[in-house]
Automatic annotation (TrEMBL):
Residues in ABC transporter domain copies: 4-245
Pfam families, A to Z: ABC_tran
Organism classification: Bacteria, Bacillati, Bacillota, Clostridia, Eubacteriales
Summary of subunit composition and partner proteins: Forms a stable energy-coupling factor (ECF) transporter complex composed of 2 membrane-embedded substrate-binding proteins (S component), 2 ATP-binding proteins (A component) and 2 transmembrane proteins (T component).
Identification of the protein by name: Energy-coupling factor transporter ATP-binding protein EcfA2
């Protein structure tokens, strides 16, 4: 069964005003349990609006959202547990840290869930380890940490709620290349260890290509596709037509194909391209 399902999901900002804007338009979507997916689309294509429906932060203008088969908004009392089930990490979440220590910040969500002290302590420890924060860092004020560490602390705060679905909006934005790799690697490890559903919004095709198994593409408020990474990059021309640059390495190999050198596979990471080439050249890799 799909963990997230939408039926003709539509969301309109400013209904009844001259500024009316359809941000999500008739989206039918099924996200399976355990999927690790990237969400891409040009600026303003509706990515943030879409994900805010998945934990009941936004109410559809029309259409429906189901979490674990349960329709949201039929009974408002059921929204609270959904917010625990679907954890949302906003862009630049480090600006939302406010407690006096990192440990207290991470504990905030589990505390809010009404868990007992021991369980909260276990979760704080486990999620701090997951994001690579030391025991020493936990006792510091969030303001004593570096930007990258603060981001980790904020992500750990949502992980500590042990959501079934973890959604992150641009988790690597504003970080240097090394910081980006570390955060994305950490999210990949989290998915591998927990097997949970993880969705991450990103502007970077390269980041997406390297990390996720599936891609959801939004275009002008509509769902363009939700499919395996390879299959999505196979549609490079359509993606480029909607202003989405496929990874540079994919373009190089597509160019080779156009020149008659078809290696028979879609290439979207440098590592895979290298192995493919070396294999064809008959060398061991
Ligand atoms: N609070 C709001 N009021 C009015 N219009 C809004 C509001 N938030 C978003 N929009 C509009 O809805 C559309 C979709 O916005 P959304 O933020 O969901 O897109 P996005 O794909 O996440 O964009 P970005 O990549 O820039 O974050 C855009 O045209 C945006 O201007």
């Amino acid at each position: 069964m799909a963990v997230i399902k939408t039926e003709k999901l539509t969301y309109v900002y400013g209904e009844g005003t001259p500024f009316r804007k359809v941000a999500v338009d008739n989206v039918d979507l099924e996200i399976e349990k355990g999927d690790f997916a990237g969400i891409i689309g040009h600026t303003g294509s509706g990515k943030s609006t879409l994900i805010q429906h998945f934990n009941g932060l936004l109410k559809p203008t029309s259409g429906a959202v189901y979490i674990d088969g349960e329709k949201l908004w039929d009974d408002k009392a059921k929204l609270r547990p959904v917010r625990f089930k679907v954890g949302l990490v906003f862009q630049y979440p480090e600006y939302q840290l406010f407690e006096e220590t990192v440990a207290k910040d991470i504990a905030f969500g589990p505390k809010n869930m009404g868990l007992d002290k021991d369980e909260i302590a276990r979760r704080v420890k486990e999620s701090a380890e997951m994001v690579g924060l030391s025991a020493k860092a936990l006792e510091k004020s969030p303001f004593e940490l570096s930007g990258g560490q603060r981001r980790r602390a904020a992500i750990a705060g949502v992980m500590a709620m042990e959501p079934e679905v973890l959604i992150l909006d641009e988790p690597a934005s504003g970080l240097d290349p090394k910081g980006r790799e570390q955060i994305l690697g950490m999210i990949k490890d989290y998915h591998r260890q927990k097997g949970n559903t993880v969705l991450l919004v990103s502007h970077s095709m390269e980041d997406i290509a390297k990390n996720v198994d599936k891609i959801l593409v939004m275009n002008d408020a509509k769902l363009f596709c939700y499919d395996e990474t390879v299959k999505v990059f196979h549609r490079a021309e359509e993606l480029e037509a909607m202003g989405l640059a496929v990874p540079q390495i994919t373009r190089v190999f597509n160019r080779l194909k156009a020149m008659g050198i078809d290696l028979g596979e879609d290439v979207y990471t440098v590592g895979f391209g290298r192995d493919l080439l070396l294999n064809r050249l008959g060398k061991r890799v």
